[in-house]
């Protein structure tokens, strides 16, 4: 499968899950996965899901503007770089964000998120 | 050395070199390095330097707002995620950008850029 298509499919799945049911993101991470969210470092799927679930908004909608991807090296990993807008329920203006994922292959032929770094882009 | 300090030192070196002498960035990349610049994929140090040197502005100044880093896996690599502003000579307003680097260790104990993805964040 074309890497760009894999990246696009991952990104669509990730944000649709995030916007519908953040707890459902847990199976995309593993115990050694890392998230840096606005500078805060969190490790491991349970802690990452707890962080994402505790964000101070109930409903949100991600709109992806760009998706770039590159192979990350000989391990079969893939780097995915996303920019987009995040609309929070009740807020007039969307927030701009950038996020990168380092995806690593699983023995089952899928990918999990090894690294995840998220930043809002303040205007 | 603390990974955050390594990341910060790399970022400082990268952008000060970019702003003073873009051709000097060549020794940070290798033949298998990849740059995705605003969606355009370029491979190899000479091609990357040619691309950066051909950007349609002579003088610029990067101002870094945030630097996040994570180890990228068992290979000793490091992911560095940057947000900041890019001021072009003669332009009134700075442009916002996000950029990620995947740094890999060299036998000499330094790092080279395996992956580089750059995007402007349009308001």
Automatic annotation (TrEMBL), chains A, B:
Subcellular location as annotated: Cytoplasm; Nucleus
Keyword Aminoacyl-tRNA synthetase (UniProt): no
Principal subcellular localization: cytoplasm
The protein's name in its UniProt record: NTF2 domain-containing protein
Annotated ranges, domain NTF2: 6-120
InterPro entries: NTF2, NTF2-like_dom_sf, NTF2_dom, Nuclear_transport_factor_2_euk
Domain of life: Eukaryota
Keywords carried by this UniProt record: Cytoplasm, Nucleus, Protein transport, Transport
């Amino acid at each position: 499968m074309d890497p760009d298509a894999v990246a696009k499919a991952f990104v669509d799945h990730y944000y649709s899950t995030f916007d519908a049911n953040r707890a459902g993101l847990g199976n995309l991470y593993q115990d050694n996965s890392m998230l840096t969210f606005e500078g805060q470092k969190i490790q491991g799927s349970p802690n990452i899901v707890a962080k994402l679930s505790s964000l101070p908004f109930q409903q949100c909608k991600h709109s992806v503007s760009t998706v770039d991807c590159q192979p990350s090296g000989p391990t079969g990993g893939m780097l995915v770089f996303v920019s987009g807008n995040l609309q929070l329920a009740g807020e007039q203006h969307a927030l701009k964000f950038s996020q990168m994922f380092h995806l690593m292959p699983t023995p089952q032929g899928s990918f999990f998120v090894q690294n995840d770094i998220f930043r809002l882009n303040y205007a």
